[in-house]
Amino acid sequence: MATNRFHPFFTNVGSVSSWFEIYAAFSTFMMIFRTATNDLIPLKLRNFIISKLQDFFSDYRPGNEVSLHIDQTWDGKTNNLFYAAKEYLPTKISNNYKSLKVGMISNHNNLLLAIDEKQQVLDEFEGIQVKWMLIQKPGKEVSQSSNNPVKGVYDQGNKQKKSEDNGFVLRFDEKHRNKIMEKYIPHVLSTYEAIRAGNRTLKIHSMRDGNGFWKSSDFNHPASFDSLALHPDLKKSVIDDIDRFLRRKKLYQKVGKPWKRGYLLYGPPGTGKSSLIAAIAKYLKFDVYDLDLGLVYSNLQLMTLMRGTSNRSIIVVEDIDCNKEVLNRSDPGAQVNMAQAYQGAYPGYQGAYPGFEQADRKTFTMSGLLNCMDGLWSSFGDERIFIFTTNHKDKVDSALLRPGRMDMHIHLSFLETKAFKILASNYLDIEEQHHSLIEQVEELLEKVDVTPAVVAEHLLRNEDAKVALDGLIEFLYEILKENQE
Question: What family does this chain come from, according to its entry (predicted)?
Fold first, then answer.
């Protein structure tokens, strides 16, 4: 049997909690020691002593405890697990923690919290308790005259100090090793991805040219599901369908289908199709790609554009019924002069027209579009949403409408009474004395067809709720009178 090489002091430690109390005390001692010896001991000797003490101390732990060291870098490369833990652990901070880091940075409205090396963080996962501790390693000083300046350094006399390479230690009972490795760590990583997705800035991408390049800008559309003037039942059905799609990745793999979903938004102009697209993007935290088929002149270019999109994105084709090129490309009379069309889209362009030199590249067909939706070309990425919009569903080719291409057809109709209540609440501070006016509007909406956009415009015309509602009632009466004549 192997002899115990530990000092008796360490073998008498009775519990894991006692061990961490000692560890915290040691961490405090190391900080004091580092400060006190800053000017008394040469740098190299100081770093050597500190590293040896840390290594010596970290070797001692209860026999049934496992320690996982998660350094900030791995062989000189970024360790994603470190940054995942850095984002995950603040969600586990409780009010009784004594030592924390706090800060405020630009683009954040709330205070930010982080743990420091003095505070142990406890977490529980499926009945297993784990313990986290931040470990800070001493930085290295380099000469300012170095030919390779270190990024993120600060001045210190004639020397600079490299940012500290921190790490985390994750401790748990050895009997839970498999569950920690197979479930808990993936849980930390997935939580990190969700946090990062929630904090990211959405982008909208528009076509830059026919070669498959996109130009991007921030997508700051204010619409959300909370603000949409949509019937509550329809709103719920859309959200439920999206949620069901997101959690069915394994099912799509099992049945051999690309992980994508198609929606057709149809209805009169002004019924909120663009706002619904923005709300879906904001709900999913997906980027938006605005695909203008009027600028696509070949199947090859369309395929290249699709390959240029990212996973977790929404590909939008608006007013599909107006894209006669898609529906009639098989008709020779519908062929256009590609160079002339390209010049029309990009005035003043003097260069070559890539992709238009050969006749066989001048064909953009319905089959090419269908191939990108659910054919062989549709496997270019995962977790995609296709959204098509139209004012006239009956004009859309039936081949596009079938399930697998447009899986859910969402009819956005004229304004209904339940949707009006949402609209009125968004635009006006409705008070009880306006109840009778609201009832009048609802009665009129049962008799006339008017879009949410038109009603919203009338609600914007006056800041006084009563004046705005009176004006809307007068407008609706005029429509009713015209319909009766």
Answer: Belongs to the AAA ATPase family. BCS1 subfamily.
